Structures are given as C-alpha cells and as structure tokens.
Amino acid sequence: MSAAGGELPEVVQKALAANAAAREAFWALPPSHRAEYLRWVGEAKKAATRAARAERMVRMLLEKSG
C-alpha cells in the first residue's frame, strides 16, 4: 500500500487492515486528506501515541463515511 507516492506507516496499515470500511473510506479521500491523516499519525514521538492516533483515525473515518 502506498499513499501519495510513499508507503503507509506500519501502524496505519495494521489499523486499516483490521477494518475494511475504514480502509475503503481512507482510499476514497482526496490525496491531500490522506496525507494529513498520515502526517498527524506520524508526527507522534511515541509508538503508543502513533498507535492510539491510528485507532482514532479509523474511528474518525467510520464516522465520516457512515
């Protein structure tokens, strides 16, 4: 998987792999919106924070798509 020419971080890959609806919603977003989610998740310094943000990203995607 890649987004805007780069690889998705592993934590995001795992979060999207666990939820097909969120994965579909993520790839339906414009590239700039996908990049913003990836930036937000990736800027966290701690792995636990990145994982929590990836989980929150999934919830946010589901709320917007449903």
How many distinct domains?
1
Fraction in beta strands:
5-15%
| Main β-sheet, spatial strand arrangement | 1-2
Helical content stands at: over 70%
The rounded distance between the terminal residues' Cα atoms is: 24 Å
Give the beta-strand count: 2
Backbone structural class: mainly alpha
Extract low-pLDDT stretches: none
Shape estimate: globular
Mean of residue pLDDT values: 92
Number of helices: 4
Sheet with the most strands?
A: 2 strands, antiparallel
Rounded to the nearest angstrom, the radius of gyration is 11 Å
How do the helices and strands follow one another from N- to C-terminus?
Answer: EEHHHH
3D architecture notes:
The protein has 66 residues and is mostly helical. The chain has one domain. The chain contains four helices and two strands, in the order ββαααα. It has a two-stranded antiparallel sheet. β1 and β2 form a beta hairpin. The longest helix is centred in the C-terminal third of the chain and has 19 residues. The radius of gyration is 11 Å and the shape is globular. The model has no long low-confidence stretch (mean pLDDT 92).
Summary keywords:
globular, two-stranded antiparallel sheet, 4 helices, 66 residues, mainly alpha, single chain
Brief overview:
Helix 1 packs across helix 4, helix 2 crosses helix 4 (47-65) and helix 3 (31-42) packs antiparallel against helix 4 (47-65). With 66 residues, this protein is mainly alpha-helical. Helix content is 73%, strand content 6%.
